[in-house]
Design a protein that fits this description.
Blueprint (H helix, E strand, L loop, with lengths): L4 H10 L6 H21 L31 H4 L6 E2 L2 E2 L7
Antiparallel strand pairs: 1-2
Length: 95
């Protein structure tokens, strides 16, 4: 797949990037190089390869999915200008 100058102009317009006419040919070459690289990636056989999040083996940190109060309500409201029973107090804004 390759792009022509009209496509490069359209992409630049859609991306709201001002590309001078003199630079369009260079940009076309760069975009075609990128698309060529992507086409090369399609040739890689990835059958049987598990998806991974890192190149180094590591286990995801997991915790139990339980509801709790966190036990730090007092620490959360410690710097609040006003609080009562571990709730923030705010001035009334609607009459």
């Amino acid at each position: 797949m390759s792009v022509d100058l009209a496509t490069v102009k359209r992409v630049a317009h859609l991306a709201r990037i001002a590309v001078p006419e003199a630079d369009l040919t260079k940009l076309q070459g760069e975009l075609n190089a990128i698309l060529g690289f992507v086409e090369q990636l399609n040739e890689v056989d990835v059958d049987g390869v598990e998806p991974m999040t890192s190149v180094t083996p590591m286990a995801m940190k997991q915790r139990e999915d339980v509801v709790n109060d966190g036990g730090i309500a007092a620490a959360i409201v410690a710097n609040a200008p006003a609080c009562e029973d571990n709730y923030f107090m705010v001035p009334k804004v609607i009459e």
